[in-house]
Specification:
50% helix, 8 helices, 167 residues, alpha+beta, globular, Nuclear Transport Factor 2, Chain: A, 18% strand, 5-stranded mixed β-sheet
Length: 167
């Protein structure tokens, strides 16, 4: 009986070592650079905007969120307030800017800032503000009156897809 237990324990140890090795390879293969995180956040934001998913967008926001309108600003202090005010916060101008943004051409400044559209949405890479352990890049401000993005502004990858679908 002790031989059977020994073999079972040895098999279990081998299985755990294999799983740990595979998990470590997956973690090291995952790109956790700020540029990769920015790309991911922009794609998540675009998906949430397309679905009108205020809760998913609120999960990307560092509260309090600064909302600039004209010469005035206000703060949205909680996810619940964000969800209630979603339609006025993500107006047609802000939604168009987010959807027209090419995730591949979005970049972070040296200070960890990224602008979407013509300044409609600002992202900041700051772990201290985000209160999250797994993600540091969050939405920090909205500019409701930023210059409009041309409705014809389509990301280059979508232009190529449209051309391929025509031919």
């Amino acid at each position: 009986m002790s031989v059977i237990r020994f073999r079972a324990v040895a098999s279990l140890v081998a299985l755990l070592a294999t799983l740990a090795s595979e998990a470590g390879a997956q973690l090291s293969a995952a790109d956790t650079s700020p540029a990769a995180e920015l790309h991911t956040v922009v794609l998540e934001l675009q998906t949430a905007v397309r679905r009108h998913d205020a809760g998913a967008i609120a999960a990307l926001v560092a509260f309090p969120l600064r909302v600039n309108s004209g010469r005035h600003y206000r703060l949205v202090r909680s996810p619940a307030a964000f969800v209630r005010e979603y339609d006025s916060l993500f107006n047609a101008n802000v939604r168009a800017a987010v959807l027209a943004q090419d995730p591949d051409s979005t970049s972070l400044s040296e200070r960890g800032l990224s602008m979407l559209g013509k300044g409609q949405v600002w992202l900041i890479d700051d772990c201290a503000l985000s209160r999250r352990r797994y993600r540091c890049l969050t939405i920090s401000a909205l500019n409701l009156d930023a210059p409009r993005v041309s409705p014809r502004a389509v990301p280059p990858n979508q232009r190529l897809q449209r051309r391929a679908n025509r031919g």
